[in-house]
Amino acid sequence: MYVAVKGGERAIDNAHAWLAEERRGDLGVAELSVAQIREQLALAVNRVMAEGSLYDPDLAALAIKQARGDMIEAIFLIRAYRTTLPRFGASEPVDTEIMACDRRVSATFKDAPGGQVLGPTFDYTHRLLDFALAAEGEVPDVATSAPRTETTPHITDFLNKEGLIQTEVTAEDVPGDLTREPLELPANRPLRLQALTRGDEGFVLSMAYSTQRGYARNHAFVGELRIGKVPVEMDIPELGFAIDIGEIELTECETVNQFQGSKTEPPQFTRGYGLVFGQSERKAISMALVDRALRWEELGEDNLGAPAQDEEFVLYHADNIQATGFLEHIKLPHYVDFQSELELIRKLRREAMESTAPIQEAAE
Distance between CA 99 and CA 102 in Å, rounded? Predict the structure, then answer.
């Protein structure tokens, strides 16, 4: 047993060394720096921060480098590191109305109060490979604009003034924290939103897409999508007031959904909500669609049996770290388990052959 353990340890050390060699790649090619990843692969960095539940672009970029670009592995690294950090307190809720918007669009009002700001987006680009990016040279001059600094009201506020959209009720209790406590069902909306923002982007996107294809009959408009930086404040007990401790970039999406009314609610528009670290438009919109689908019970709607309406299915399968751990564990040694099943199959085959032998003899 000791020899086997030592041999396994030696093999694992060699595997780690080989992994480091593969990660570095051709030594004739310049090594990627963390700063390069942070600045030029910002959307990947944003995803790692969002699903890793830690806003730190430098650490997210380092995790991507260490993981050789494997996003889920990078997210795993960030979550593992996060568990080692001390917690000093909780920040105040951020006010997205004062967001310095780099991008702010609405699909519901052409002349949106506060204006439409296209910002940096792939929406209007041709999906053609730009081979100029493969050539070395100076970066071409591009037009830039400063982010909006004035307060930008939310579109849904204007619908709310006319009573056309369901009013959000502010929770009185302090929301739970999925990073410190396991998920329990049924979950309230704050916990569901936490699970969705930490959830795998591809999974949440698939659930959102299913609602658009009829699995929940939930037609949505993007009332507003905004991206920008917001200040983060923290209450200091010794001072007796909150102070600004920094700023973070967020993507916020509010959807406006059709609603014919129910036994408990009048006909009105309803909302879906998504909020994600960094520029993560696809994730924020997907999150808002799934959030709305999961609200069927509170709005008195019928459960149509759609996957996106099943709270347990969505929330228990959205987390890519849990999914990866459960999936990848089956490639680890299961020698004893397999040997027991192998012996069982052999025994069943022997018994089956013995039971059919007299019948074959009689037939002969």
Answer: 9
- Domain ranges in the chain? 2-82, 96-324
pLDDT tens-digit series, residues 214-237: 898 778 899 999 999 999 999 888
What type of residue sits at position 90? A
- 57-66 helix and 42-52 helix, angle to the nearest 10 degrees: 100
Query: For 149-189, how does the pLDDT look when each residue is reduced to its tens digit (9 = 90+)?
Result: 677 888 888 887 777 787 777 766 778 888 888 888 999 99
Q: Among residues 222, 281, 277, which one has the least CA distance to residue 94?
A: 277
Tokens of 251: 């993507």
What is the 3 state secondary structure string of the chain?
Answer: CHHHHHHHHHHHHHHHHHHHHHHHCCCCCCCCCHHHHHHHCHHHHHHHHHHHCCCCHHHHHHHHHHCCCCHHHHHHHHHHHHCCCCCCCCECCCCHHHCEEEEEECCCCCCCCCCCECCCCCCCCCCCCCHHHHCCCCCCCCCCCCCCCCCCCCHHHHHHHCCCECCCCCCCCCCCCCCCCCCCCCCCHHHHHHHHHHCCHHHHHHHHHHHHCCCCCCCEEEEEEEEEEEEEEEEECCCCEEEEEEEEEEEEEEEEECCCCCCCCCCCEEEEEEEEECCCHHHHHHHHHHHHHCCCCCCCCCCCCCHHHCHHHHHHHCCHHHHHHHHHHHHCCCHHHHHHHHHHHHHHHHHHHHHHHHHHHHHC
Q: What is the dihedral of CA 104, 108, 113, 117, to 10 degrees?
A: 20
**Does this model's pTM top 0.90?**
no
pLDDT score recorded for residue 313? 95
